[in-house]
Amino acid sequence: EVQLVESGGGLVQPGGSLRLSCAASGFTFKSYAMSWVRQAPGKGLEWVSAIDGGGGSTSYTYSVKGRFTISRDNAKNTLYLQMNSLKHEDTAVYYCAHGWGSSGQRGQGTQVTVSS
After folding, report:
1. How far is 60 from 113, CA to CA, in rounded Å?
2. Count of CB atoms within 10 A of residue 34's CB?
3. In this structure, are residues 52 and 60 in contact, taking their beta carbons and an 8 Å threshold?
4. Would the N or C end of the chain have less CB density within 10 A of its end CB?
5. Burial of 28 (0-12, 13-18, 19+ CB in 10 A)
6. Do 25 and 96 meet the contact criterion of CB atoms below 8 Å apart?
7. Could you report how far apart the first and last alpha carbons of the chain are, in Å?
8. Nearest Cα to Cα of residue 92 among 47, 48, 49, 38
9. What's the DSSP call for residue 106?
């Protein structure tokens, strides 16, 4: 059974940084691409970033390019999202998702609020 547990969210001022983590279990982590997706208040699910199983290939939605970095530690079965230069519009619940894209199984999410 795929289990994903996100952590690291919180309240941060515009321009600040946060690092999200996702602990994965129940599957062979290194064999699967993983993604981060988010849902802002009153909006639909938005794909943010993805990384392949080996960590050598990444992709980002345009709005976060140059500010967010996805990475993974396959020895620890953990996915990360380093978020820098945060903006108000980054406020959302962030989920890690199994696979490449937004349709895979997700965790319970972690809230990120960017506010002064």
Report:
1. 20
2. 25
3. no
4. N
5. exposed
6. no
7. 40
8. 38
9. B
